Amino acid sequence: MPQYDQYTGFQVKSPETWTEFHKNEFDVKPFGDYDVEIKIEACGVCSSDVHTVTGGWGDQHFPLAVGHEIVGKALRVGPKVTLIKAGQRVGVGAQSWSCLECRQCKNDNETYCAKQMDTFGAVWPETGIVTQGGYSSHVRTHEHWVFPIPDAIPSELAAPMMCAGITMYSPLVRNGAGPGKKVAIVGLGGLGHFGVLFAKALGAETWVISRTHSKEEDAKKMGADGFLATADKGWNEPHKLTFDLIVSTANAFGEEFDLSAYLSILDIHGKWISVGLPENETLQIKPQDLISNGVLIGSSHLGSRREMLEMLKLSADKGIKSWVETVPISAENLGKTMQRLQKNDVRYRFTMVDYDKQFGA
Fold first, then answer.
1. Is the pTM of this model over 0.85?
2. Any idea where the Alcohol dehydrogenase-like C-terminal domain is (predicted)?
3. Assigned domain for 315 exists
């Protein structure tokens, strides 16, 4: 008889075998007063999963089930839970715990809590149990990090919003994207496509900046008002001092990445907000590039519970449809999907589905 409750999930044993998933049983932390137990029905596939299982973001606690864009049904709730009811369809994102007592937590900045814990790969104090992610039968999460999903949003479309969606929504609303503002999204990928959808829904004039014109038609279908390709000579010249905000999802900062050209299109005190987290890359910033228009450079990490609920309501009210390819969950399909994502062979998110076929009804 195991000491702790157990779930079943698809785990990777090591970075050396990152494309090989194995269905295993694993321990989960004791069910707490504020916990919600969720039977998973869908989970988005995030680049974070690839960075983790390949070891690109450093050492991890293996074996590990990744996946942190979770949608499922709340099976039971702890005796002190007030935010979620059993039977609700709910979502869980990349974070599953924070102290809820510090200055950050009390000011809708709980994602910046010094004690925050990730949905997978974190170690619970006292028990030493490693949190396991959404390529599993169930997940057990503190109620603050469990979000009711509006009926209008299908599970396979809601799942990628739990990480990619909120990663783009938070910096947009925190930096004033809305009517009368001109916003650029750098990179039209899994993150960037949410940036376009949300910036438009918030009422901003929305542009996409990409290396080539290959995704221009997709950008227009998403509602983009304009498209700039950095491969075009002088691409930035007609747009200098015209943008209020740039949200960058760039995943490489090589010699061809001319930050000064991007910053030149920002208006006075315009903001460059970076949300991409490429491996082993450094963004080179020259003080001279900041002073001509007094630009501000920053970043953003996920988003608060309040922002998550706002984002879901906006998506339901505006009929926002994330661009998703569904894949039946299995060990083989997870390996193939991870490899496709590493090659950017997706437009624009994957969601693993058909959980009942692997884990039972």
1. yes
2. 190-315
3. no
